[in-house]
Write a structure and sequence with these properties.
The protein is an alpha/beta fold. Helices cover 36% and strands 23% of the residues. It folds into 3 domains: 245 residues, Aminohydrolase, N-terminal nucleophile (Ntn) domain (Glutamine Phosphoribosylpyrophosphate, subunit 1, domain 1); 193 residues, Rossmann fold; 166 residues, Glucose-6-phosphate isomerase like protein, domain 1 (Rossmann fold, 3-Layer(aba) Sandwich). Helix 7 packs parallel to helix 13 and helix 9 packs parallel to helix 13. It is globular. It binds fructose -6-phosphate.
């Protein structure tokens, strides 16, 4: 939540800041602002409620004198509504210092009371302004921005990434982070800061991720990192594996449409280099392989879509590895007394690797002695770095707020993990493992075929654009798909949608069925389990008898479904565990098309932000 960019170099920073904010806008889009400092110490700020385009238009109408040092912010409001006044930057030291913030300062009320008592005046309702005023005061005492920030972060509780510039220190941007992300982009004669690499990937692919409780000072020719106590820290340089064009919309109508189209590639890249001679190879696990041999339980943690891919992983891990698996929402795990120990493996799933709920749950599990493995899409993200091991999904950048290709890639990574465990424990014959891996290798082409149902989905979505509620049913591995289909529709089309396990119908949800009620049903292949298939067909008959309008996602040629479905969306014949991956794509497309039919912004649904870095 909230996107942050910082720049020091030898060119105008406004272009860099606006470009970076454009790429980070998925993190929040309530308001945006910039502060720009020139070599003579002129500090200019501009901030506007609304999308980044409002700020950009304003800067064209009333240009701000440019400078080679700057910071920029795009906001997802927490404290104080999305107004011009609450937008960042906030000022301190009588307007000589500008500061931006991502996160929540939990003890801001007592700090604010203290500042008010000392005569400071506030112009916003934000927690951030407290930090700006405090850093301003500390600067007056120290005359050094890095030291001033260091003094202040020692007093802050909660989650924060802070960036600050001061009129008296042109060519310097200082950042600090605790529980919120911050990465440094390394350039030639210029350096960058960003909430993630997307902020500067257009200019450099070299980056250093800043650790927990660290401060960084960037100048055009230097980068200094230290911890909150002032000890120097050596940053580890990495290179982003994708370039700026991967995060461009290209000719697509939306990032979401583009990202769904990239699902075949996401599967391919997640498999890349991890399958040899019919076996799974995960060198990422070498360091903890011995511990993994002794675990007796797996707890999968995630939020939203990531938790649904985790549920899919549970079916696969239990089937292949024969290890008990629980899947839990990270925020629920964190706030009870979870029973985990050194024989428990925590598998956290996160596209961004920065979701606060998941991060805190991982930390809690580690504190209790569990081993932690993350499945993550963003290189160098906090959850990845704080886990004992990480399996990266290599799905490429996901910009649309609604997660799509990440879900598919996460499921593939979990399947690889399940098969890896099966190898380790000898729980599945080698030929069966080789068979599943072979099936997985064909998945990208089959995806391509599924994506071909676009026109059918578009027509359906147009026809359903006035629908007020949609239900989704699935059994077994179809159940997480039903949950995901419902989530996509809620968040994108603002339609009430619920996903149910089809077996649960008669325990309550069937009461919702009335004539005309649209119900998507994920139908398992009759070739996988005839019993499961016939149970789902019975469920379809039950809802049809009560007037439901049934849209079945079923294997091509599944004749048993035809008499009872109003519409069938065909998916290719694949092995049972791969069906959910293909079945989810039409549901993602449906949510996208319905949102588009309602004239909504599919990439930036209301009230949401992509990376939920506050609790
Ligand atoms: C839904 C969606 C969210 C995320 C969730 C976790 O489309 O995008 O439900 O899946 O916020 O995010 P990550 O995977 O970044 O931890």
């Amino acid at each position: 939540m909230c996107g942050i960019v910082g720049y020091v170099g030898d060119r105008g920073s406004l272009d860099v800041l606006l470009g970076g904010l454009g790429r980070l806008e998925y993190r929040g889009y309530d308001s945006a602002g910039v502060a720009v400092l020139d070599a003579e110490g002129h500090l200019g700020t501009r901030k506007r409620a609304g999308r980044l385009s409002v700020l950009a238009d304003n800067l064209i109408a009333e240009p701000l004198p440019d400078g080679a040092t700057g910071i920029g912010h795009t906001r997802w409001a927490t404290h104080g509504g999305p107004t011009d006044g609450n937008a960042h930057p906030h000022l301190g030291d009588d307007g000589k210092l500008a500061l931006i913030h991502n996160g929540i300062i939990e003890n801001f009320a007592e700090l604010k009371a203290e500042l008010l008592a000392q005569g400071d005046e506030f112009t916003s309702e934000t927690d951030t302004e407290v930090a700006a005023l405090l850093v301003g005061r500390a600067y007056r005492e120290t005359g050094d921005l890095t030291e001033a920030l260091r003094r202040v972060v020692a007093r802050l509780e909660g989650a924060f990434t802070l960036l600050a510039v001061h009129r008296d220190q042109p060519g310097v941007v200082v950042g600090a982070r605790r529980n919120s992300p911050l990465v440094i982009g390394l350039g030639e004669g210029e350096n960058f800061l960003g909430s993630d690499v997307a902020a500067f990937v257009e200019h450099t692919r070299r980056f250093v991720a800043i650790g927990q409780d660290q401060i960084v000072t960037i100048r055009p020719d230097s980068v200094e990192i230290s911890d909150f106590d002032g000890n120097a820290v050596e940053g580890e340089e990495s290179e982003v594996s994708w370039d700026a064009s991967a995060a461009e919309k290209g000719g697509w109508s939306s990032f979401m449409a583009k990202e769904i189209s990239e699902e075949p590639e996401a599967v391919r890249n997640t498999l890349l280099g991890r399958v040899h001679d019919g076996r799974v190879v995960l060198p990422e696990l070498d360091g903890i392989a011995e511990v993994l041999a002794g675990i007796d339980r797996i707890v999968v943690l995630g939020a939203g879509t990531a938790s649904y891919s985790g549920l899919l992983g549970k079916y696969a891990l239990e089937e292949w590895a024969r290890i008990p698996v629980e899947v839990e929402l990270a925020h629920e795990f964190h706030y009870r007394s979870p029973v985990v120990n050194e024989r428990t493996l925590i598998v956290s799933i996160s596209q961004s690797g920065e979701t606060m709920d998941t991060l805190l749950a991982v930390r809690e599990a580690a504190r209790l002695g569990a081993k932690t493995l993350s499945i993550c899409n963003t290189q160098g993200a906090t959850i990845a770095r704080e886990s004992d091991a990480v399996i990266y999904t290599h799905a490429g950048p996901e910009v649309a707020v609604a997660s799509t290709k990440a879900f598919v890639a996460q499921a593939v990574a979990l399947y690889l993990l399940g098969l890896w465990f099966a190898q380790l424990r000898g729980s599945v014959p080698a030929e069966r493992i080789a068979g599943v891996l072979d099936d997985l290798s064909h998945l990208p082409e089959q995806f391509q075929e599924v994506l071909g149902v676009e026109e059918q989905i578009r027509t359906l979505a147009r026809w359903m654009s006035d629908t007020r509620a949609v239900l989704f049913l699935g059994r077994n591995v179809g159940y997480p798909v039903a949950l995901e289909g419902a989530l996509k529709l809620k968040e994108l089309a603002y339609i009430h949608a619920e996903g149910f396990a089809a077996g649960e119908l008669k325990h309550g949800p069937i009461a919702l069925i009335e004539p005309g009620q649209p119900v998507f049903v994920v139908v398992p292949s009759p070739r996988g389990s005839a019993k499961l298939h016939s149970k789902v067909v019975s469920n379809i008959q039950e809802i049809r008898a009560r007037g439901a309008r049934v849209i079945a996602i079923a294997e091509k040629g599944d004749a048993a479904v035809l008499p009872y479905a109003d519409e069938v969306i065909p998916i290719p014949l694949v092995s049972p565990f791969l069906e959910p991956l293909l079945a989810v794509a039409p549901l993602q497309m449906f949510a996208l098309e319905l949102a588009a039919a309602k004239g909504l912004d599919v990439d930036k649904p209301r009230n949401l932000a992509k990376s939920v870095t506050v609790e």
